[in-house]
């Protein structure tokens, strides 16, 4: 059957459109394929190197920022050191940032922020001036002309050499002529150039106004690396009286200590980070600094393009001290007042020092010191002098001499009586006890009685016995040099002549006199404390070791390390400082009884020659050893008055050690005992009574 003509034509027409549609589809595919090839050619052939450089210049690293520093509390929970927060403008330096880039950012920033220019140096100004490429070109041309240099000569110079040459030229010829805003920009530029890649530096930390914050925040996109942040600085809500023990931290303007900058930067610090600079702040830096926040930073083409905080950081832990701030202030006042009271009749007195310590734990309750300028009479607090100032202490060390002699076997607890008499050796002036210079008061003394009356003769005879020398009047002293290390070895066991280990930097070991045959007679002076020199804290450790029966404990300023609660209050204990035993003395209880009995007799003995009788009425009872050392200020004869003591005598809870050096000779002022009595009175009222 044939179709109508009209229908036949429609069928042929539809069949003829099929090849056309297929061709059109192939054409579209061809165009897309061609476009893809063109794009690949663009990416790989025409701009391959550029895109490869972009990829290679993209870097992802971690940026760290400071957190709030840990606080310091006294033993009662009083805040001694806290933190103040303030607004800050910061800069995080991208990798590969060049000086012209920093120049532009600095100029841009100071249009919105005012910067203090007091610390701007000529070098800072010159560096900023030369960061302008036009200025650099002008100066380069001038240097070439002045020094007759060719381009080849300039190229031979190291960049640092030519930069120094350019800076010198600018400074010498005073050609920077910066206006006020340019000077501000120069300060900012100097801080930014001092930063290393992806470290954050503070550009402004004080008096950042609302307007400055708003304008900087509004224009952050045009100043790559500039941020709005927070700066933390130390505050002292109860005054700075404890600063000589607590120490200080560096500021953003001073930056890291120059003598330790490389080590600190290797540990992750930035150049203008705050870091403990002295004393407790330095000793416990790892505890106080906390853990920095961590931000993942992506940098492309020297610009920071993406940031994401990975860790918010953690505030530093807090220190709780064994020191009661009120008691510390009172002890300091006692020492200040004491020095003032004797200054008129003691022109060569350089001050005084005291340490109060728990003999059973090593806890330091107070460290006080006074420095007096002998020439001007000016008095300043110097608590740290108790650990770094050394003095010849005198008879206060005689307990260690007696203990050494018993440990050496030259006397025993049951056999220790020796006659006090002037020691007369060939070729030397007689040496005697203070009460028997002429030999008219020769008396037989037991070891404890020798301590009570402070017999020099008794101690010298012990030294000669330890040195293997049998004394007879008028004979020549014949002892080996080994007597010096032998006696010092015994002294060391109690803490005299070695570092105590107190948890503060800068402790002195003391001073040892020459130990040779030419000075063999000085071994006798060593026996009664008139040769070597010690610190006041060594006296405290020595007396603590005597009081507790032979355990040498580390003196500890810090009682505990504690966290911070969410509300900012003092948190839970992380570390409790337990007594740290440094060594033990290998002596018997009966040997310690001899010395402890002597110390008790110094204050409470029946002999009128006892040296600490002025403290006999104090309760609880005090056991002590006083000391008087013969010293000199130039050619003027002086003496050091010292005292080491503990109380109560039967169950020691506290040790008081102190020294007043450079006193006028033979004044008999008793200032050492007077000051000690006042310190004990304050202790029982302010520390022990409150259970602290």
Describe what this molecule looks like in 3D.
With 692 residues, the chain is an alpha+beta fold. 38% of the residues lie in helices and 20% in strands. It contains 23 helices and 20 strands. The strands form 5 sheets. Strands 2, 3, 4, 5, 8, 15 and 16 form a 7-stranded mixed beta sheet that branches. Strands 11-10-9-20-19-18 form a 6-stranded antiparallel beta sheet, sandwiched between helices. A hairpin with a 6-residue loop joins strand 9 (351-357) and strand 10 (364-372). Helix 4 crosses helix 8 (180-193) and helix 5 (133-147) packs across helix 7. The longest helix is centred in the first third of the chain and has 42 residues, at 5-46. The chain is elongated and about 135 Å long. Residues 353-679 form the Penicillin-binding protein transpeptidase domain. Pfam families: PBP_dimer, Transpeptidase. It is a single-pass membrane protein. The chain crosses the membrane at residues 20-42. Residues 65-301 form the Penicillin-binding protein dimerisation domain.
